[in-house]
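Hi support team,

I submitted a single chain yesterday and got back a structure, but I'm not sure I'm reading the token output correctly. Could someone confirm the output below corresponds to the sequence I sent? I've pasted both exactly as they appear in my results page.

Thanks,
R.
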Amino acid sequence: MMMHLPTFPILVPLVAGAILLLLERRQSTSVLRVGAWISMAAQVAVAVALVGAASGGEIIAYLVGDWPSRLGITLVVDRLSALMVLTTTLLAVPCLLHASAGWDKRALHFHALFQLQLAGLNGSFMTGDLFNLFVFFEVMLIASYGLLLSGALGPRIAAGLHYVVFNIAASTLFLIALGLLYGMLGTLNMAEMAVRVAETAPEDVAMVKAAAGLLLVVFCAKAALLPLYIWLPETYSRAPAAVAALFTIMTKVGLYAVLRVYTLVFGSLAGPLADFAWDALVAAGAVTLVVAAIGVVGATRLRAAVAYLVMLSAGTLFIAFALANADAISGGLYYLAHSVFVTAALFLIADLVQRQRGSMGDHLLPIAPPTRSASGMMYAIAAVSVAGLPPLSGFIGKFVVLDAVPAADTAWIWAAILGGSLLAIIGLSRTGTRLFWRVEAIGDAKPPPSPRPIEVGATVLLLAYGVAMTIGAGPILRYTDATARQVLDPGSYIQQVQDTQPQIREPSP
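Hi R., thanks for writing in. Yes, this is the structure output for that exact sequence:
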């Protein structure tokens, strides 16, 4: 059983999604919820087991179908993939909890699509092959289309269609880049590609670099890097709360792909193509961060502000990863998990605020129905964390990244990150003031409706993750530090994949 562990993060939600799709025509929502939670419990156990298996530094390669790695599908478990699967699974628990309060009844095929999206996300983190990365991207995206557009009306339909069209265009570019790379290198297995890139003939370097540049554009589009972010603010701000919260991990898939591919295939062992992307990504990340921070200040709705915070976190992570040193990547990985949880919590808080204020929704209006103090307290905790103020996890992540900035780049990178944080604090303070403090109640306004306990519980759980990351910062940072050093040592990854042999071999003639 344990030898097949790398397949479980994909198979469990994939099989669960198929079963739930068959059951939904004949069974009640309660039965579907039970099935979804059984799957979720199994995924939590699998994610914990993966981290346990990877925490000692061992890299596990699994050959699906028992084909050699250069020919067939390869799944790889290392510290990075295990961390990403665990982060996704921990995020999915409160998202499913929030949806189970009632929204899942209004969304066609919700539980099946939710499980399929988890299969796509986990597969993206586990695969060792670029073509299968494309396949899992598409599984994830197709499920997200259904979750976003299910029961949609008006502005959400428009935002959803823009999201679909943008991603189809990016996927087309992805296929073109893969075709070029396969034509030049003869493989899409990432470990094998790394070997062949280092051996590229001088006359082919320019073509391989062009294909790698196209691939980088695709990953940056998925991660919402400027100027490829145009799909994100409207899409995320219009999505249902539980869906928007789950979507916070989707931009991180693009960031993960950049970190994985451009340290492994085009990393330190890539000869003339070594580390060619990092300098441009540092600058692009800084500009993205500043533009996103301005978006937070200028937002007229809480959901829109949170969408720009997702983009702000992507800019920060591009800087951390593109610095390409172990300490910066370690801080970035810690910050990645923090940003996923806190922005997801803010989307759920925005949903609570919207329903408490009735027709005013989450618009930042000085005259509105009253909002319950519990929502304001949760917002304050989330705002302190996402802005990077001490003592919560956002401060720790940014501090580690800033401390790792090389002396030559200190001035402008510190200015970008700290300036972005300052603008975010201004925007979040303005938002909180207009929603929870200086609000003139409408005459004869009724007391706000009580939020459903299950929805409050989901929000509190996400905020509790951040508190737990603060308390357990030492062990977590030790893990992320070891992860960063493993990522920057592509040789061990390449060797393990190449040394893994099929379990069943044909007899010699």
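A quick pointer for reading it: The radius of gyration is 22 Å. Let us know if anything else looks off.

Best,
Support desk
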